[in-house]
Amino acid sequence: MGWKRPATAAGMVMLLALAACGDRVENTEMPQPEQASVEINRQGMEGAKEENQAQGVENNTSTMGAAAEQSARTEDADAKIASDVQSSLANDPDLAAMKIDVHSRDGTVTLVGRAPDPAARDRAGQLARGVAGVKTVDNLLTLG
């Protein structure tokens, strides 16, 4: 057993020596390749176009703005329709206690929830149809 102690000590000395000799990596970030040079202004100062117009591209923001404005108006109208239908349902004494989700898209109203009986289900559909701006009603109320 006398040989184990010197062997262990020699092993520890070797491990410490190897640890001291090891290369330390200070920067662990991956090197980034250089980016290719891009010619930004091919026309030069003489051929520059107006600030808002690129060569060969028509800049028609009025059409884009009109489409966005129309979409916003449609969303506002649908939100108002859904709100009005929800108010109409809440003001009905037979339906006020029911939890009915109302969604509207392009004037089509969808009713989702539970009705206690077929009469309540039909009444909710009738009230929704009576709201201004409603084109059709998709009555998905289930009985139960």
TrEMBL record:
Residues 77-144 form the BON domain. The lineage of its organism: Bacteria, Pseudomonadati, Pseudomonadota, Betaproteobacteria, Burkholderiales. Residues 26-78 are annotated as: Disordered. Residues 53-64 have a biased composition (Polar residues). This is BON domain-containing protein. PROSITE patterns: BON, PROKAR_LIPOPROTEIN. Keywords: Signal. InterPro entries: BON_dom (IPR007055), Lipoprotein_DolP (IPR051686).
